[in-house]
Write a structure and sequence with these properties.
Layout: H1 7-22, H2 33-51, H3 56-69, H4 81-84, H5 90-95, H6 102-120
Helix pairs in contact: 1-2, 2-3
Length: 121
């Protein structure tokens, strides 16, 4: 697993992300601190996807985990309406086509709509 790590490609995202993170005092006044930190993680993730120090799913998983651990991303107790609608599953299907099929998405849509009906009762 460690043989797949491109250590030279890891330098650019880390340095750029840290520079943006540390530039918090000079950010525009209209942007909150949390939004600036999220922007730093986003830019570092995009650069990491370009330089490919790790496979893209690992890179994005690290970014999301970092956002959750640092409490930049908030966890909702109930899923947003887009998750319940069938179209909300489309980005997931596009990002992992080997794992999900159209049948799985239809079943997930039925399960989520049944769960909302049960919750309403």
């Amino acid at each position: 697993m460690l043989a797949k790590v491109n250590y030279k490609g890891l330098i650019a995202p880390l340095v750029l992300g840290l520079l943006i993170w540390l530039a918090t005092p000079v950010r525009p006044a209209a942007i909150t601190t949390e939004a600036w930190y999220l922007f730093a993680i986003f830019v570092a993730t995009i650069v990491a996807c370009i330089t490919k120090p790790l496979p893209m799913p690992a890179t994005t998983l690290i970014a999301v985990t970092l956002g959750m651990v640092l409490k930049i991303l908030k966890h909702r107790k109930s899923p947003p309406p887009s998750v319940i609608r069938p179209l909300g599953w489309l980005p997931c299907a596009c990002s992992c086509p080997r794992v999900l099929s159209i049948r799985d998405l239809a079943n997930a849509s039925r399960i989520s709509s049944c769960a909302t009906l049960v919750k309403k009762r």
